[in-house]
Sequence to fold (1018 residues):
Amino acid sequence: MKFLGRRIAFYLFTAWAAVTLNFFIPRLLPGDPVQSLINKYQGRLSTDSIKSLYVLFGLDKHTTLWQDYVSYWSNLFHGDFGISFTFFPTPVAEVVAQSLPWTLMLVGISTVLGFILGTLAGVGLGWRRGTWLDGLLPVANFFSAIPYFWLGLIAIAVFAVAIPVFPASGGYDGGLTPSFSLEFIGSAIYHAALPAITIVLSSVAGWILGMRNMMVTVSSEDYVTVAQAKGLPERKVMFGYAARNAILPSLSGFALSLGFIVGGTLVTEMVFSYPGIGYVLFQAIGSKDYPLMQGVFLIITLSVLVANMVADFAYAFLDPRTRQEA
Amino acid sequence: MTPHDEIPVLQTIGLTKHFPVGRGRKKYVHAVDGIDLTLMRGKVVALVGESGSGKSTVARLLAQLLPITAGEILLDGTPVKATHGRKFRRYVRNVQMILQDPFASLNPIHTVGYVLGRSIRIHHPRAGKAEREELLKSLLTRVNLTPPERYIAKFPHELSGGQRQRVAIARALGATPQVLLADEPVSMLDVSIRIGVLNLLQELKDAFHLGILYITHDIASARYFADTTMVMYAGQVIERGPSEAVTQRPAHPYTQLLIASAPDPDQLTGREERPAQGEPPSLIDPPAGCRFHPRCPFAMERCLTTQPPTFAVGDGQDAACWLYADDATAEREAAFGPAEVEEARA
Amino acid sequence: MSIQVDPVSIDPALVVDSDVQLTKKHRRTTLGIMRNRKAVVGMVILGFFVLIAIIGPWIAPYDPSKVTPDSLLPPSPEHWLGTTGTGQDVLSQLIVGTQGVMVVGLVAGIIATAISVVIGVVSGFIGGIGDEVLSLISNVFLVVPALPLIIIISGLLPSAGGLTIALVIAVTGWAWGSRVLRAQTLSLRKRDFVEAARANGEPLWRIVFFEIMPNLTAIIASGFIGTVIFAVLSEVTLAFIGVTSISTWNWGTVLFWAQSSQALVQGAWWWFVPAGLCIAAVGTSLTLINFGIDEFVNPRLRNTAASAGILRKKKIRARIGFTPIYRGDAPTPVRRAATVTRKDQP
Fold:
């Protein structure tokens, strides 16, 4: 229990740090670009919105830093992230809420798929050496050295333009409206296929390698030899004994690499114009939409934190040794 | 014999070390409690005990690698407290340590020449290059690694366990110490090599008039190598005396247990009259009274409540056991019968 | 000749813990990495790009920024990689762009590694509160997703030149290395040779720099390479998004222009394919070097590929825990007469 407590405390602290970082970033901006932007939209902003933007960017010379900070936190708890300039006058919170589910779906599917495929391949590679599986590793490595976005570009060029198998962009067919209908979901999956494949290809090498190395180390441990000597079928030893122990570092690595995968997904979305948070960020950068950029960053960070926490607890659940660590 | 030799080169009074457990909780591991130790030049004192008895901690306390909780360490009659800085370096020139694991005590990336060279550099700061070379070769020759040139460029993994231990001894000698603290120096060596290393230590002791603290769990080697033997249990010294006496006529029931547990080819049938029971006690909550009483076949009423002081048992031998209290004879005979205790000592 | 092939056999020439005497040739550990085929291939490829980075601006056939009317020409003898939508030579852009990529990658790698070494080693060495604080800081940096942070920070800076980007990347990417180093330092600190060095009188700073750090070189090198890979990919990504300044040429900038001019749709594959291949090549070469280091450090991984080939040739199926013995032309064992005499039992 003490272990869990410490981890939760850590995540809370990190969340606080991320929010505080977010608070300070725009204040580090040289010059006053925000003021000019607000001036541009002045006529169409309500006083409340102007106020929240002031708080966001610390433009009100009459308030102290601390007051701004407190107001910032209170705004956050009210779900007020400011107004987006790109999607004016939609509040940032709304923009984020609309695009987040798409990213979640894409990241979720790609990560799970990549993890499963990679880990299975790693188990096979680590267990049996000298088979054709060995050739898989350099290929996967090559793919992981390619930037996500470039792979995406190639994928589009080949599978969407040259041989039109998949759609080149978008999250769903332009003519449909978002709903839970089968047609919509089908279209969504169809559009998500190519981006997901790109992400999986790029990230799978990491899983394979990690798992393979661990399998090699674990397989030479005595308890595996005992299991084999007992006469258990090979598959049972491979999965039940070896893989189960070898997967632990992969799990903790999973949590950490989530950050990377999220980053990669963002870029992939940009390439595919996939309506997720990454694409929103891309547009925000293009139009210097600071409130939106901040909001997106915060959401991404908090999501990764939550995912890390879940993975952490899963790891503690699976490996009794971590629970002992006071 | 100089008057110098009359003062113990290394002495401890009431040496105590308690390790705090956990964070800020008021629990302590009573690793070492009230050890009085006397080491004379040119003599070997053996410190015998099982794992967890605290003997290695004593070694590290004497090497000033750990701060002491209570008690005093006296070097040449003067109390010292020198865990770091110049005082530490000065202390270390006199007291050197040899560790148990020859495979781990040498850094795998450094050659023998580097290791010994560092020792020479640190302890002979004003020596010139030629002199250092000479010292290096003489150190190697001293530990019987000849020809020295052959060993200077070697890495630890290229040497056998015995050779590595000799390098470790040479490193200690580089400081021209007066005391060698040997923490189980031969426990991890092949049995056939042990005698060689022990004989080397004997030679060095005679040549340099060193005092050696020989820590071991093997009481038989204590008899062979040491002049005096001290037996430790659960952080305390429970018996001390000339090695011959302690090993041949052990007084404390624990010592008797140690001796009896050594397999004896002349006695193939086990002597299970008073079998040993139980395990070493928890040092966080040591039992009240004598710490050995849960396992002691001769435990009496007194043993459960009061810690026994040390009683003289023979010439120069003493034991911390209520069985040897002057007024214990009646109690003893009532509990165990007159002859049994004496028999156990035989 | 019977061949015993153990799937997890260790290359005897590079075993670290054995009593075998080695020949002089195999002793130097640095040579070991050279024997690894993967690492050598990686280094060759990397070397090629480093060379281009250095001499690039001199050997580029055209000025990469020069606009000409020959737009979107496929590869030809005048333009080996064709031209862009504004008639610029793609090959020249790539060649000149190499410098930007390599410099940023290298600088970011160096800075990040330096930070991670300082924080990781100090944290692992001093323990206690200092360790807790430093670990907390590095964990925070570890969990916060790097790329979005880099994007945000760079996006907020008015003009992000190469070195600024390198700094931002370094500051976001040091945490992983420091965590690994801390773990290693923690385990090294407890090793006997550190204690022995201290007991011999080595000052603390020498222990950190000369006893502990050299044992960390492999990890530091591997971390450095990993960071460079990360830096290169991040930098190219940033350029592609349009966050970094477009005044200096960079493979990512090439792709940025390719994307904004819809090179894909126009089928101008020569515009965006080579840039990506270059990135992939650099990344792959670094990964290969890392593999080499990995296999060198962990002997069990070393012969995975080598054994695979040998095993296949001998038609042996490797299985964990079994040592296949090839009986092809095994000689019949020679029988010797028993000459052992046995002692009589008492």
The CA atoms of residues 47 and 184 of chain A lie 40 Å apart. The two ends of chain A are 9 Å apart (CA to CA).
